[in-house]
Design a protein that fits this description.
Strand content: under 5%
Structural class: mainly alpha
Radius of gyration: 23 Å
Largest sheet: none
Order of helices and strands: HHHHHHHH
Number of helices: 8
Shape: elongated
Distance between the termini: 45 Å
Amino acid sequence: MRQTEPRTRPPRLAAWFVELSASAEQSESILGDLAEEFSDVASKSGVVSARRWYWRQSVKTIFHLAGAAFRSAPWSLAGIVLMGFLLKWFIARLPEQLIVAILHTQRPYSNLHYDLYVWLVTWGILILRVVQMTLIGCIVATVAKGKEIVAPVVLIIVSLVVVGSNFLLHILDLPPQIAIPWTFLLPNFANWMGILTGGILVRQIRSASLRRDATP
């Protein structure tokens, strides 16, 4: 029985990461160059080696693109990130306020709706916060034209530094017999994923728009 040859296609996930990191105008040419070099490496060293090479080159390309985007307009990018951070700070308590307002309309509480109340307090706030952070990511990415992924990622890094510093100070103040509250990091991780998702959405929408405009 004849065996089929392995498909000499670059790793889709790595290519997608590169596409997101590049501007909508750059991505096609960069991916084309990487695909051409991938084919050359695959013909000489095999598909497995070519895939490893592609991942290494993708990481280098992503860091290079991020650095170039920052160096091209550092103050503009810093201003956009500051805007996103302040927006995130000003509306941070909006999900809790909305859930509390909903619960206040249901007084007096009853056993019939107890499970709903618990769900709203535990998961409803988290879901609303992720939606909120996704919208902030969309706003930051929309303003940062050409840096739709870099700006949200820098915002995530700034938020990570702030949260990490507060978390470190908090655990240093805890008595030794008290367990470290690692669950504190879960909502923040969800927030960061929301910001990144917003940037990805804007980047994909702009890429699709450019492809439609380029189609004759």
